[in-house]
Design a protein that fits this description.
The chain has about 475 residues and is an alpha/beta fold. The chain is about 35% helix and about 20% strand. It contains twelve helices and 19 strands.
Length: about 475
């Protein structure tokens, strides 16, 4: 029921948190706080009988105990419209790009995750044109995956690449604790490529109120859900969830909650899960796929944020030394999409160079149209990773001064080719081209009977010697 009372006394102020006594208030309800500094919105974050704790979005600076507080009888909502596309907003959904405010249907944020009965099993790939994802750890529609990285790794550059190249209808970028330069770089990169037209950005910078950092995932996912219900495939890119968790910790400390591991609130797992579980493939509509950067302080994967994240998500990508590492990175749903099909009209061994080029183009188009991969996907993936593991062992032997055999020398050349042509994040090729490149790298470094691939498969796909 709408609470029309205006309260004129705040009992306590700490940071951006205010406490007062009020009746008929709901959890997550929005209030207006009017003070000498102006009017700011706030949200109910704790109820203890008549004691109500508010989180003031703009911070409590300029707010005193005589401020007027009026509860609005509704939870935080974000306007939804097609006009969101191409725009950038703050964590509180206020335009950041100088454009007009969005007028549209108001959608509540922070709602429960989708009823399992409305979900369907993940079964389609999200192509990114990054071989270390598409070929070795395929991203699947409705999957939730973190990108684990230490500070200094180019994770925002990777997200920008994915935003440019992913075959999704809508891209939503949720930035938390970004430097202003990082926000401008995201925007200019997308604008130059034309991808901004299908992108919505909700960005909290390090200079913005800490409260807005906590709103970014909820606002991003609320908008994503509306687009998905309209039949769109939506890719949500969040960076970074450790900043989100740090905001939770700061507010919990202000509220004098009993801390858990390393000062984080005891409900950290639930707070993270509530956001990640919004990933869904709707029955009869679109989908929401979540890729979220999680920085690891001190490169420590046992830190509470990546540690809790690992229990929630369906694998992870490890970004190390500017590359997605093949060992440690894992997509637990890749088996749903990398079985592949045969393109039976392709007869590589009897085609001329011109005919092969034309046939290859038709092949790419066919697999894209059917949103599937080729029959040799798992074969190439397994063979290349197995040989790369042997290469890493050979590097260790070489560093200890062991004599290199002919096989070791082949592995060293193969590993260098693999890292340069597959692992480098600047590589931008279609999945089918990546499979062909995999065969070429193998053929450049080994004989056909040295790679452990069944002869039936190698006879069909092993490159012809010129």
């Amino acid at each position: 029921m709408f609470n029309n009372k205006v309260y004129h006394k705040i009992d306590a102020l700490a940071g951006s948190v205010a406490t007062l006594r009020a009746e008929g208030v709901r959890y997550n309800e929005i209030a207006e706080v009017e003070s000498r500094a102006g009017t700011s919105l706030a949200q109910v974050i704790k109820l203890d009988g008549a004691n109500v704790t508010l989180q003031i979005f703009a911070g409590a600076r300029g707010v005193d105990t005589a401020a007027r507080v009026r509860f609005l009888g509704e939870t935080m909502r974000v306007p939804f419209s097609q006009d969101l596309l191409g725009r950038a907003f703050t964590g509180a959904a206020v335009p950041r790009d100088g454009g007009p405010a969005i007028i549209g249907e108001l959608s509540p944020i922070g709602q429960p995750s989708v009823n399992p009965a409305k979900r369907i099993m993940p079964h389609e790939m999200v192509r990114t044109n990054i071989p270390m994802i598409d070929l070795f750890n395929s991203l699947v529609k409705s999957q939730k995956l973190p990108i684990f990285a230490r500070a200094g790794e180019p994770y925002n550059e990777l997200l920008a690449r994915i935003a440019l190249q992913a075959d999704s209808d809508v891209i939503i970028i949720g930035g938390m604790g970004l430097k202003h330069d990082d926000y401008l770089k995201f925007r200019s990169t997308l604008d130059r490529s034309g991808a901004l037209a299908k992108t919505v950005m909700f960005v909290h910078t390090a200079a913005d109120p800490i409260v807005e950092c906590m709103l970014v995932p909820d606002v991003s996912l609320a908008v994503a859900e509306k687009f998905a219900l309209e039949g769109k495939d939506v890719l949500v890119l969040l960076t970074d969830m450790t900043s989100f968790a740090d905001a939770l910790k700061e507010i919990a400390i202000t509220m004098e909650q009993i801390p858990s591991n390393r000062g984080y609130p005891g409900d950290l797992y639930s707070q993270l899960a509530a956001r990640y579980e919004k990933a869904v493939d709707f029955d009869g509509a679109g989908s929401i796929t979540i890729l979220a950067v999680t920085t690891m302080p001190g490169d420590d994967v046992t830190h509470p944020v990546p540690d809790n994240t690992g229990y929630i998500t369906e694998g992870q990508f490890y970004l190390k030394n500017g590359r997605i590492e093949p060992f440690g990175s894992l997509s637990r749903l890749k088996q749903q999409v990398n079985k592949g099909k045969s393109y039976s009209t392709l007869q590589r061994s009897v085609l001329s160079q011109a005919e092969a080029a034309e046939s290859a183009e038709k092949e790419r188009a066919w697999f894209r149209e059917h949103n599937t991969t080729r029959e040799d996907h798992r074969t190439i993936m397994d063979a290349m990773i197995k040989l790369y593991a042997q290469y890493k062992e050979t590097v260790e032997k070489q560093s200890m001064g062991f004599r290199m055999s002919d096989w070791d020398l082949k592995l060293l050349k193969y590993g260098a080719d693999f890292e340069r042509e597959m692992m480098d994040l600047s590589v931008n090729i279609d999945l089918i081209d990546a499979l062909d490149l995999g065969w070429k790298i193998l053929a450049d470094n080994f004989e056909r009977d040295e790679v452990g691939i069944p002869s039936k498969m190698s006879e069909k796909y092993w490159p012809k010697k010129k």
